[in-house]
């Protein structure tokens, strides 16, 4: 699963930086290009919850394969787009079904014990981030060739087809047997607890039965089941977790919004330096994902404390950037922010699954993605308004939002620490 996640973001990051240049070369105005980009974000906003819930209904294998293949179709159509209309059409299947990483995370949460989940998720994010670092370099090189954008799009579609083959080759039919053997083999070794192995086996069996039963249900029954599950999430007591995720995501987006322009206005540095600084932060984020194992052991697997401390550090570093008097303070804040944000993102996902329960992990991750999408829509608007007052306006506003998130976490400390599942209304 780490290899497809690496290839996924590697392929996507080859194409995405070139898309604005391509659509302008087709004769589209800045407004039309912006509208198409916004439509993609809106489709992601509404589809992530439904696709995540659908993966709970029909099983991870078929939903993941469907999303990979339909995303491949979207990038193949992108490689044949010679008009603005075809370009817009190619973004539809990708906008609706490009949730491959979310479903992969839900599958990982089904397969690993709860105490090992932050470690595995951190490594998964690290593998994805490496692809995101390397992809733009390769895409920029291919763009220099004749018809470079079309070649890059076809290569991306081919990578998704390769991922579909890798996912198909996973030992799905041997999953339950493998888990039982793993449980027997690790008895007495301390690698996993007996309860963790028992939960692992039960989750695998449940998902296997769900996949075989639900896949052949009529589409109307599947839709009704999906809507019922979404209603259960909406009526559950999880609003504070998703609100914390929204506030922290907007705070971080405000930090990075107009980053190059703000550095140029405040310190007179060129945009190239800002690009190097963001690549440096991305590389440190990969390292942070690999360090999650020792960090969780240091905190005795208390995800709430890790999240609270990482959020507090993030808030402090954004404040340091907003009040920075020299470029070296910006470099210092960017260095440690790469660690705190990577750890925070992983911990908030783990906390969602811990409090909400693994029975609806796909739905929970889908709702979380929708919440993040709302942040991506809201953050540019808030950044533009704050930028009118000062170049330091967006990060200063981000500090305030992060403080609110920290206060919410402190107010709900008992629920986070108890690790009791919040029962959904439909269970």
Automatic annotation (TrEMBL):
Q: Which residues form the Major facilitator superfamily (MFS) profile domain?
A: 1-417
- Keywords on record: Membrane, Transmembrane, Transmembrane helix, Transport
Q: What Pfam families does the database record attribute to this sequence?
A: MFS_1
Naming one, the record's GO cellular component terms include: membrane
- Asked if the Swiss-Prot or TrEMBL record annotates the protein with the keyword Transmembrane helix, the reply is yes
Q: Which GO terms describe its molecular function?
A: transmembrane transporter activity
What transmembrane ranges does the database entry give? 62-89, 149-170, 238-257, 277-296, 317-339
The topology of this chain with respect to the membrane is: Multi-pass membrane protein
Where does the UniProt annotation locate this protein?
Membrane
Give the similarity note: Belongs to the major facilitator superfamily.
Protein name, UniProt field: MFSD9 protein
Question: What is the protein's species of origin?
Answer: Sagittarius serpentarius
Q: What is the lineage of its organism?
A: Eukaryota, Metazoa, Chordata, Craniata, Vertebrata
Q: Which gene encodes it?
A: Mfsd9
